[in-house]
Amino acid sequence: MKQLELLYEGKAKQVYATDDSERIIIRFKDTATAYNNLKKAVIANKGVLNNDISAMLYRHLEAAGIRTHFIEKLNERDQLCRRVSIIPIEVIVRNIVAGTMAQRLGMEEGTRPSNTIIDLCYKRDDLGDPLINDDHAVALGLVTYDELKGIYATTRRINEVLTALFDRVDITLVDFKIEYGRTSDGEIILADELSPDTCRLWDKLTGEKLDKDRFRRDLGKIIEAYGEIDRRLKRLEE
Ligand code: UDP
C-alpha cells in the first residue's frame, strides 16, 4: 500500500490517497479545536491516542456486525480506511444531557432522560453546524427519508454496542458524534473517528470527565484523560 497525495486536511486529521482508489490513509494530528475554531491548541500525543482508541472502538463495532470504513491501523498515527464520500451531517447521540443540549434547553448537565436523543447537525463551519431535522436533511439533498431510517437504526445499534463496551471499563458514554459516508457502490457506512474528541466519557465511579471537555473547559490533564481511556479499552483486548 503506497501513500500518495494529501486529499484533505481537517482540524484533527489528514486524509491521503493511496495507490488503491478505494482506500485512503487517515492520519491523526495533535491539534485540537473547540467552539467552532475559536479555541485552538496542540496537545502532544493526542493523535497517537485517538488513532489507537478509534481503531479499538471500530474493531468492536465491526465484530458486532456494524459496517464501517475501518480496515486496519497501520502505525502510531495512521489507519487504512475505505474511501467514502462523507454525508455532511453530524449525528449526535445523547444518553445523558450535556453540552449544547443542556444550554439550549435550560436542562441541568447530568440529567438522564428516559429516552435516547438523536440530533442531526448540518456540517457547515460557515453556518456554525446548525441543528437540523429530517425534513431539512432531505430538503438539502443530503439523504433520502429511507436512508435516514437506516442511519437511525444503525446509530441506535452503535449506541448499544458502545454503551455496553464502555460500561465494562467503568465509563459512562454520555454522548457522541458520528458521521456516515457513501462507498463507490452507494452503501452508507460509518466513517470518521470515534475518540475522546468526539464522545463525552465520564468515569462511572467518580464522575470525572475523560474527554475533550477537559480542553473546552480548561480542566487540565487532557492527555492523561485520553491515556486513561486508551488504557481501559486495552484491558478488553487482553
Ligand atoms: N461533537 C463533535 N463534533 C462537533 C460537535 C459535537 O464531536 O462538531 C461531539 C461532542 O464531543 C460531544 C457530542 O458530540 O461528545 C455532543 O456535543 P454538543 O452538541 O454538546 O456540542 P459541544 O459541547 O461539543 O459544542
**What average pLDDT do the residues reach?**
97
| Poorly predicted parts | none
**Principal-axis shape:** globular
Tell me which oligomeric state these chains represent. Answer: single chain
Describe the structure.
This protein is of the alpha+beta class and 238 residues long. Helix content is 31%, strand content 31%. It has six helices and 14 strands. Strands 8, 9, 10, 11, 12, 13 and 14 form a seven-stranded antiparallel beta sheet that branches. A five-stranded antiparallel beta sheet has the order 1-2-3-7-6, with helices on one face. A hairpin with an 8-residue loop joins β10 (117-122) and β11 (131-132). α1 (46-63) runs parallel beside α6. The protein is globular and about 50 Å long. The model has no long low-confidence stretch (mean pLDDT 97).
Task: Give a quick set of tags describing it.
single chain, 6 helices, alpha+beta, binds uridine-5'-diphosphate, 238 residues, 5-stranded antiparallel β-sheet, 7-stranded antiparallel β-sheet, globular
